[in-house]
Write a structure and sequence with these properties.
It is a single chain. With about 120 residues, the protein is an alpha+beta fold. It has two helices and seven strands. The strands form two sheets. The chain has a four-stranded mixed β-sheet with strand order 1-3-2-7. A three-stranded antiparallel β-sheet has the order 4-5-6, covered by helices on one side. It is globular and about 35 Å long.
Length: about 120
């Protein structure tokens, strides 16, 4: 799963609010005692970047975390398949190859280009 805690679409939070939420999510993920790593999403069209966490958890836990951290959606990765999951409706929308969206030259761990995603 890929989960974030930054301001969701259409909302504006201060840098401090975003960082505080992100740190709270990181602590909560660490308490789950699962594999996690930083991953940053970016959208070239508007120059938006958003740090998040790739984490080895099941879909229900991911949706719960998304809801707890006021997210519209989370990403589900299985093998090379990437999907967007609505936290409210729990709709899963397949969007294609995960690997094709990873930028290995990114300066922060990995980055996933969400420009070509049709988000629910």
């Amino acid at each position: 799963m890929i989960v974030t805690a930054y301001a969701t679409t259409g909302e504006q939070w201060s840098d401090e609010e975003n960082e505080r939420a992100d740190e709270a999510l990181r602590r909560r993920l660490n308490e789950l005692d699962v594999w996690i790593t930083r991953i940053t999403g970016f959208y070239h069209g508007i120059g938006h970047t958003e740090p998040g966490w790739a984490v080895e958890i099941d879909l229900a836990t991911g949706i719960g975390l998304g809801r707890d951290y006021r997210q519209d959606a989370i990403f589900h990765v299985e093998g090379d398949r990437l999907a967007v999951v609505s936290c409210a409706e729990q709709d899963v929308a397949a969007v294609g190859s995960f690997r094709e969206r990873v930028d290995p030259a990114a300066t922060q761990a990995f980055a996933i280009n969400t420009q070509s995603l049709d988000l629910p």
